[in-house]
Structures are given as C-alpha cells and as structure tokens.
Amino acid sequence: MITCSVNYKAPLHKCIPNASSLEFNRKGRASSVVMAGFVHGLSVHGPSVVATKKMGEMFSRRLSEDLTCLITWVNENPKRNLLTAVVAEPTWDYRLITALRTLGRTCYIIVWHSDATEDGIARIQAFQSGANMVTNNPEHLHEALQRVTSIHGNGDLSCPWCGLGGFSEHELWRHQPLYHIYEVRDGGANFWAIIPAFIACGVLVLLQMFNVFCVVATRTRKSTQALRVPPTGKKASTTANNGALIPEPLTSPRPNLNHPIVQPDKLDSPCPACHKRTSRLTRHINLYHGPTQLVDERTGVFALAVVRRPEDGKFLMVQERYGEGYWLPGGGVDTGESLRQGAMREAWEEAGADIVVTGILTVESLHRGLWRRVIFLAEPVPFLANRDNGGEAAADPALTISDTDPAAVRAASSFAAADAAGSLRHRYRCKTLPDVESAGACWVAVEELEALPLRSTSEPLTWIPWVANGGRVLPLNPEAVPEVARTFPDFQL
Q1: Per-residue pLDDT tens digits for 197-206
Q2: Which one of 68, 248, 254, 343 is most buried, counting C-beta atoms within 10 A?
Q3: 473 lies in which domain range?
C-alpha cells in the first residue's frame, strides 16, 4: 500500500492540452471519430488543504475555490471537463457540499474530516448533501484520486446513472461504484420504468413481514441460547422452551431519510456494455464487466458480526449502498468457507476492518433450512501492518498544514487536538473508499443508534444493546452449542 501524507504545497501544475467533446447517439456510443480523453481538474476547499503524494502528476488542471470559476470551467466542455473537489474544512460544511453538487453529477466530491469514521450522523448528512466520499484516511484519499484520474474517457460506453460518455468497459466498471454507489434517482423517472420497482418494494415488504413472523415463531418453538434478560430490565419478546429469553428490539420511530423509493440498482435497465436487461445493474457490471469475471455464488447461508471496539465500546456499522442507511457487517458465506471465515471476509469487504470472532449470539433457520444465519460477536484487530503488502509495517499518515495562513494555523490546532484524542481512529481503521460492496463504515456508540438511519432495525437494535448491556454470549464450541452443527451440517464453524 502506498504511504502518503497530507501536504499543503504539493505541485499541481502539470497540465495537458484541453480535450474536445464527443457527441453520442441514442444507444450511448460515441458517434465522433476523434476520441479525446477526459480533462481532470482539481479544486481544494478549506484552510487545511489536503494533498497526497504526486497529486500534481494525477490532475490536468489545478482550479481555484471560486464556484463561479468552477462553473465556467465545467461548462466549457461538460462532457470532457471532470471536476474533483476536496472539501477539507475543520467543520462539516454541508452548504459548500450542496453548492459543489450543483456543478453536475459528474463532479466527484470528497469530504476530508477527522471524524469521518466516528460521527455517523454527520457522515450520512455529508452524503445526502452530495458527497461521493467521506474520509480521514490519506491512503484511501490517494487511492480514490488515482481511480478518478485513471479513467481516461477514450471508450464508447455511457454511464446509465450520470449520462457521461466515453468509457471503456473497464472504466465503466470503475466509475459506477466510485461515483454512484450511494446515489439514488430523483422522482423524475419514467412512470412505466418504476412500476417494477414498486412491485418489488411491495414483495420485499411482504417477505419482511413473513420473515419476522417466522423468526418469532421459530424462536418461540426452540432456542439454542441460555440468554439472560438484559440488565436494562427490558422485557424479552419471547420465552423459549428451555426457559431462555430472547432480547426485544427497540421500537422507537426511525429518522426520516427523505430517500426516493426508486433505487438505480433495482430497475429493469439494459447494460450499456452487453445490452442485457437486469434488475441489478451495479451487481451485473461488477460481475461481468470488470477485469476478471466473477461467479455469482449463493449458498443461502449468511454470517453477520457485531463488532465491538474494546477501548470505548463503540460498534462497527456499514454504510450500505443507495441511501439504505447503516447495518451490521456481514453477508453470504461462500462454498468452502467456514462460518467464521465468511463473517471475517464480509467485515473486510464491507467495512474495511480485520476482525476476530469471539462468540456466538444467535443461530437462525427459516424456510426448512433454505435460509440460515449465524450472528457472531467479534472485536477489531488493531491496524499494525499493511494487510495488502505481506504484513510489512505501514507508517501512520502525517497531517501537514500551511503555517502561512492564519486560518490554517487555527485549523492545525483543531486537527492536532483531534489526532491526540483520536488515536483509536488510526488504530482501528475502517473503510472510507466507496466500492461495489458499500459506501464505507463508521464506529457508533449504542446511544447513537436511535438517531441513525438503519437499513433494517431488527438486528442492530436487538444485538448491539444486548452486547452493550452484558447479555450472555455463547462460546465458539460446537459441543456447547449443538444447534450449530444441526443447522449447518455442511459448514464448519
């Protein structure tokens, strides 16, 4: 992994000639014979100007902070001039993010903030204001800028989300999650196009109601846990046949997310590369149009993890795609994996955290075993070495702020205080670089759960308070929990 630092004086003036625009036909393919690439421009906002190593070699233009100048530059050639804006204010400047978003959907907005992985509400608000990425990790910032500028625009495909043309197949695969993984469509969609989405939403609601009924019925019939009542004194929802009590989910009103119903990944859309119609276009592009074709393998077995940071008791939450809110890290277990390996892999892919599983919270089985799930308790592994470089030690990033600007000096003191109080942020890093798996991750306190938008309330509001209040955790011993072997005879623990 490339070690990088925040540098106020990075050279940003290596320019290339401007590019001419292309016109596109109705099929989304370039109709011009001249294939001109994108011109990537960089604008950095705030007294604590962030730059990574060799940033000046990545971008074609260094642009000012003035919004009028940015609008003029983008409008000179909106199909070729692509703006990347880094908002590095010491406070969350949602108005600036919103103003930058008015420059167009092809503008890539990165918010740099010391609490990017510690303030779940502010993180969501930044995305809802128009940010594409919220980070406090210079390595992730560097990687994002590399990915943005590696898209040259010499192909003939158009993005179904933003309409930008000129992508190769691989560039479209890279562009889509980087720019649009959290984006939802507004209400201007075609009426007939959204009918399948409404039907799908209705089916999902019915299935969710049926699943809740089945979970309650299954838990009432039998339970493998000898769990005690949470110390908060809350009444348990059901009593199992062995006298065990199942924790009751919290049921306070959820915050209004103001999200449209229609989600881009769930429309009946044609793939711009192969023209196949699919209801999950993001997944389709990721599986079949990346550098290597992947296998869509589903086993019907799922593993989730409630990951608690031991020093302060905060819990790891994944920021799901398309404005669905936060949820626990986890997903499907692949063939050949153990249940614990599946949970650990999903925690890394979705939340960017290495974890160690410490116990079992629950084992569930529905639909005569066609759907099976285990929820583990886990702890994060401290970041001491570079995971992707053979365990080689990686230095902590340094923050360098200009000492010639009084506002920057004031910002420096606030960042220094945040760094002194935020050593946990560097020790337990999590994901801030959006990809097809998620928009990132965040550490949240149990008291913050009620204010957070959640993809589904049942799991986080049941098991996070249960763990925080000292609820009993089952050991990682198949003999002590025989239901694990009965429920998962084809998977190792």
Answers
A1: 445 556 555 6
A2: 343
A3: 298-382+428-493
